[in-house]
C-alpha cells in the first residue's frame, strides 16, 4: 500500500538523534512520500537539506506560522521565492490561530492574506493552520479564491458544517492521529460525512501520535493507523483508503509520483 503523510515536521529537533533511522523506517513501511513543513526561517536550512537528500520523496512547504507575532513579516515576494525553490510543493502552514493568540489579530489576518497572495502568484497549494478559527479562515480563503490553487485544512478539529464548507470551497480536509482518540467521536462523525475524495492523511509528527502509539513520538508511517480508522468509518478496506488519499495528495500538491493500480 502507498501512503503519503501530507503534514510532517521531520525537520524538528525531536528527530535530531535518529532522523536517518526514522526515514529508513518510513521507506521500509512503503511510504510513497511525505510533506515536510518549516514554520519560520530558522527551520529552513534543515528542511532544504532533507529535500536535497531525498528528492522526489520528501517535499517541502514553508510559511511564517500564525503563532509567531514578533517575527519579521515576510513579503509576498519572499514567500513566493522560498516556496519556488527545488522540492517545495506548497505554501504553509499559514492561517489563523485564536487559541494561542488573542485579539487584536489584524497582523495575523494580514499575514495570512500575504501567504495566499504568494501561493496564487506561483500556482502552489496552501496548507492551512486554523485553530479555533476555522470559519474565519475559510471566509478569507473564499474571499481570495484560494480554491483556484487548492488548499488543505490540516489537523482538522472543526465541526461537520465547516468541513463540508471547506470541500465546497475547493479545499481538502486532513486528519491526524486525533481521529483515533477515544474522546473524538464527534470528529469521526465529521469524517464520515465527507467524501473520501476530499481527504488527506497526516501525522503532524512528532506530535499527535495515533492510537495505538499515543503518548509516543509520532512518525510518518503512523498514517496507516489514521487510514485504518477511516476505513472503518467508510466501510471499506485500508488499501482503498490508501489509494484514494494518496491520489488526493498527489493531485493537490502536483507530486511527481506514480500511483499504484488497484
UniProtKB/TrEMBL annotation:
InterPro entries from the UniProt entry: DNase_TatD-rel_CS, Metal_Hydrolase, TatD-like, TatD/YcfH-like
Keyword annotations from UniProtKB, A to Z: Hydrolase, Metal-binding
Binding-site list for a divalent metal cation 2: 129, 154
Residues involved in a divalent metal cation 1 binding: 7, 9, 93, 204
Superkingdom per UniProt: Bacteria
Cellular component terms (Gene Ontology): cytosol
One MF term in the entry's GO annotations: hydrolase activity, acting on ester bonds
NCBIfam families per record: YchF/TatD family DNA exonuclease
Family statement drawn from the similarity comment of this UniProt entry: Belongs to the metallo-dependent hydrolases superfamily. TatD-type hydrolase family.
Protein name: TatD family hydrolase
